[in-house]
């Protein structure tokens, strides 16, 4: 049994107008509920903050010597090194794509393909596909996981839908 915690947080997409001389603020926010794995609470001077872990965050800025930076702008980060040998077992092309992704199988037996959003929502699970139609999906980055006939993970690949 794993010690994985499932926490739901609310992400606020906000537009703020601050008037510093009268200490008032106007804000307009749109709320989105996200699944996160944990959270962090901290303090910088008189400011207290909370941050969710395990999700994409767009918080950035400076507070004294503490810097907050968006993970999308902070440079190259390697989170996992994957064997290229497994990626040749099932070839996925073209990438990026407008509508369809094709699979060239180089392994015996059956395999499964799972299409997942970057937030972890599973969209499709298909056995032995030769193609996958992405035409009805929004543009963006998706994750393709390939599993063997015993549901053992072979490899994960990112696909860009234009």
Give me some keywords for this one.
162 residues; mainly beta; Immunoglobulin-like; 4-stranded antiparallel β-sheet; 3-stranded antiparallel β-sheet; 1 helix
How would you describe what is shown here?
This protein is an all-beta fold. It has two domains: 7-68, no CATH class; 84-161, Immunoglobulin-like. 2% of the residues lie in helices and 56% in strands. It has one helix and 13 strands. The protein has one helix spanning 84-87; strands spanning 7-19, 24-36, 38-44, 47-53, 61-63, 66-68, 90-93, 100-105, 111-117, 122-127, 131-133, 140-148, 153-161. The strands form five sheets. It has a four-stranded antiparallel beta sheet with strand order 10-9-12-13, with no helix packed on it. A three-stranded antiparallel beta sheet has the order 7-8-11, with no helix packed on it. A two-stranded antiparallel sheet has the order 1-2. Strand 9 and strand 10 (122-127) form a beta hairpin. The longest helix is centred in the middle third of the chain and has 4 residues, at 84-87. It is globular and about 60 Å long. The protein starts with 6 loop residues before the first strand and ends with a strand.
Cα end-to-end separation: 39 Å
Radius of gyration: 21 Å
Count of all domains: 2
- The 3D shape can be described as globular
Give the helix tally: 1
Short characterization:
The protein is mostly beta strands and 162 residues long. The chain has one helix spanning 84-87; strands spanning 7-19, 24-36, 38-44, 47-53, 61-63, 66-68, 90-93, 100-105, 111-117, 122-127, 131-133, 140-148, 153-161.
């Amino acid at each position: 049994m794993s010690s994985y915690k499932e926490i739901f947080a609310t992400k606020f997409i906000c537009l703020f107008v601050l008037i510093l001389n009268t200490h008032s603020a106007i804000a307009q926010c749109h709320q989105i509920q996200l699944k996160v794995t944990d959270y962090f609470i901290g303090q910088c001077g008189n400011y207290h903050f909370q941050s969710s872990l395990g999700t994409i965050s767009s918080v950035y800025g400076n507070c004294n010597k503490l810097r907050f930076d968006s993970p999308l702008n902070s440079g190259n980060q390697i989170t996992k090194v994957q064997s290229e040998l497994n990626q040749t077992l099932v070839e996925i092309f073209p990438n990026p794509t407008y509508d369809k992704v094709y699979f060239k199988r180089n392994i015996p037996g059956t395999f499964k393909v799972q299409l997942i959003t970057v937030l972890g929502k599973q969209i499709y699970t298909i056995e032995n596909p030769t193609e996958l139609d992405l035409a009805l999906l929004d543009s963006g980055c998706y994750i393709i996981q390939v599993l063997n006939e015993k549901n053992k993970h072979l490899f994960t690949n990112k696909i860009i839908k234009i």
